[in-house]
Amino acid sequence: MLKVQHFQVFSLFTLYLVSSFVAFLVGLFIDQGQFSTPVGSLLGGVATLLLIYPAYKVTLARPHQFIAQYGHQLVGKVPHLIFMYIIIIVALILATSNLRELADFLILVYLSGTPEWVIVGTFGLCIVYAIRSGIPTIFRAAQGIFIISIGAFLIFPVLVKREVEYNRLPAMFTHLNLHQVLAGAFNMTTLFGAFSFLFLVIPYLQSPEKTYRTLLSTTLTSLIIIMAHLIPILLIFGPDLASNLTYPDLELIRSMRAGSFIETLDPVLMILWLICLYVKISFILYIAVICLTHITGMTDPRPLCLPSTAFCCILSIYFARSQPELNQFMIGGLPPLLFSVEFLIPTVYWISHLVRKDPSYSKGPPN
Amino acid sequence: MSWWRQKLKKSRSDKTKLAKSEQIPSSHPKHVPSLPKDNNLEDRLHWFEEQFTNCSDIIYRRFNLKSGHACALIYLDGMTDQVMISDSILNTLITLAPEEPSKLFQYIFEDQAVNVSQSKMTIDSNQGVSGVLDASVLLLVDGDHRMMLYPAASFDKRSIEEAPNETAIRGPREGFNENLSVNITLLRRRLKSPNFKSEILKFGRVTQTSIALVYIHEICKPELVEEVKRRLSYIDIDGVLTSSFVEETIEESPFSPFPQVQYTERPDAVISSLLEGRIGIIVDGTPSALIAPVTMVMLMQASEDYYQRFIASTWIRWIRYFFLFISLLLPSIYIAVTTFHPEMIPSKLLTTITVSREIVPFPAILEALIMEISFEALREASIRIPKSIGQAVSIIGALIIGTAAVQAGIVSAAMVIIVSLTGIASFIIPNFALGLSFRLLRFPIMICAAIFGLYGIACCLIIFYIHLINLKSFGVPYLSPLVPLNKGALLDTLFRPPWWAIQHRPPYITNNKRRQGNNSRGWASQNEEKK
């Protein structure tokens, strides 16, 4: 079995978290958190590290096995099946919503008039190829584009520094509101909680006992990049305008001029988001596919790749009637679902593991 | 397993069964009926004449020894050294007079009376036939069933010349030629170590082509040598004419457009690869060697990089990588930007492009395809056209037709610049096969760019990228050491480090990682201390 290196985990999750937030969620989060969003985001990021501890501990007990395969020994067959199906459904919904967000973005900004199914279909083909290739390929893909992508994510805020209105800066401290901080923290926790998906494929990780350290560095890096976008957006547009813009980061890029050679860099931003979201959607879909493979007793996940992706692609077209409806789901319905999948279900497994203290548990590979 | 894979597997197994069931007539010795067991010369000569029926180049030379025993020499005309046959073999045998006549046969066959190096005795008729075909002289003596084979190969071969497709400004000029022993000698001359191994294997039922596996024991992984041998062992064909046959047979992903084995005409390139722990495959009759495993980074390196000063070589490497992307993407980006994203182009430049495209009746994609395909045709023609008129045709094709096409309004001047730049960029890639892959892949990206703009380019790049991540050459990931990241080998990727800093071999290729001592510039620190 090809192993996933820690740097690859770091790369994938940094791209995952940064691209999700910067591309589609920043406006929605600012809407709820206003000037308290940065503090809430920082708190949420740190809280996630505590909340994923049960998922980490329970899967580390058997690092050479998938929890989807042995979870029934912990919580019983029926609850395990229910939990797994919830995880699969939520992963599929998450992938679908991201696909829909991406298709909406492309149609709205660059390819107006192009049928949605064409865009979703072509992107779906790329995703099928990645998930058929397996999880090491997805992680390697993330690692290969990491430096360039992160470089681009970091350089954009630097290019807009002339537009920043520094007189708004004190508001970050004077307008702190506990309710808004908590709302921001909760949203960020559900975003960063994607770490717990990693533990579903723990046998692929190289030295899984060091994973927590990797996730710590991922959280710190992601938070720094997120802040590098979030704070300029708040300072340039203010919370009201930013929350009403569909793509605040895109507007941020549009507000700058790179020089006389290239008029605007926003098509480059489109490619950047596209590639990062590609890695993200591929990972989530793979999680759904591998869990489905294990609970159905199949040995090879590849036969499920095309049907699962096709399902997501078709569902994404009918997923929401409009952008506001999708936004409502992303900020209203999805976070509680994610919270339960990312933190509550692993906690149930962990508690069962602690209660049972099964002597058959060992860190060695299965015979 | 998908249905097409199953079908492919079934078709392969059917073909194997068919091949086994068919007895393909060939000159392979294993199909030759056995030699008569008696010691009669005439019977045995008759048997050999039957084997070589209608072979006008086989010479049968009958003669008698001083003792009166009848003998015969069998050899190939044109491939053997006639002077050596008459002076060293015939003359010695005719004048042979052992002190004890009863020990004549022992003298010929065991004491090797004829002083020819590498001569050998055999009783195997198949070996006799193979030996004659390998340009040895076969001696048959009446009254003894044993045979002697005297190597006497001598035929015209091309001299060692400069590698025509891999020229270097600094560094050795020698290139391989078609002769296998000459090619191995070119390597041995520089690798004066018993650890340099060259194993000869024969393939091709009719051609019996010799293939040499060359590697350095203790640097090359034994499992790599075994894997190459294992893959080669599956070759079962009537003829192996060039190394491309071997290449296509042993590579992991035959349907990939990317080369998974490197070929080179330069012995120094092979030696450098062997010192990294790779393995070379040299096919008799081919003036180049194959090297495996290979990564994309290796294909982007030229021998010249290591002969020039490292700072200049690093700069050239960057230029090469930049033009790699130009050769792949420039026409597509032009199509996407002018068709879908004109807002990216500054207004003055946009005006210039628009004005130049105003009289062109075709969309950008059609214009690009016309130009690219014309350029490909010119390039292909320039290889086939005789050298004496090649230059004239190139001038007519590139300059006159290009200028006329722009003036006639068939293509825009901007497109001519784009295509020319792309064409030049594709020649910057040091490995021809890799350059060819990128030339090929340019077309689907252009079509996607015309349909979806930058989104189409991104989708195409994603697919190629995932393909490259999955691609392996003898188990080594094709994008190593970038993906998966291998920090130890990163230094010699985008940079050409100075020789004294290249202390390790690529860790993903060999287990013997240490290449040189800790401080090849130790004298410099000594000088510092003296000061």
Automatic annotation (TrEMBL), chain A:
Q: Which UniProt keywords apply?
A: Germination, Membrane, Transmembrane, Transmembrane helix, Transport
Parts of the chain that traverse the membrane: 7-30, 42-60, 81-99, 105-131, 138-160, 180-202, 214-237, 270-292, 304-321, 333-351
**One GO BP annotation of this record:** spore germination
Q: Main localisation, per the record?
A: membrane
One Pfam assignment: Spore_permease
Question: GO CC annotation: what is one?
Answer: membrane
Q: Output the InterPro entries linked to this UniProt entry.
A: Spore_GerAB (IPR004761)
Q: Cellular location of this protein?
A: Membrane
Source taxon at top rank? Bacteria
Membrane topology category = Multi-pass membrane protein
**What NCBIfam families does the annotation carry?**
2A0309
Q: Which family does it belong to?
A: Belongs to the amino acid-polyamine-organocation (APC) superfamily. Spore germination protein (SGP) (TC 2.A.3.9) family.
Name-wise, this protein is: Uncharacterized protein
Query: What species was this sequence derived from?
Result: Paenibacillus anaericanus
Automatic annotation (TrEMBL), chain B:
Q: Where is the composition biased (Polar residues)?
A: 517-531
Query: Its Gene Ontology biological processes?
Result: spore germination
Residue ranges annotated as compositionally biased, kind Basic and acidic residues, are: 11-20
Which InterPro entries does its entry note? Answer: Spore_Ger, UPF0353/GerABKA_families
> What are the entry keywords?
Membrane, Transmembrane, Transmembrane helix
**Pfam families named in the record:** GerA
- Region named Disordered: 1-37, 511-531
- TM ranges: 318-340, 390-410, 416-436, 443-468
By sequence similarity, the record places it as follows:
Belongs to the GerABKA family.
Name the UniProt record assigns to this protein: Spore germination protein
Q: What is the lineage of its organism?
A: Bacteria, Bacillati, Bacillota, Bacilli, Bacillales
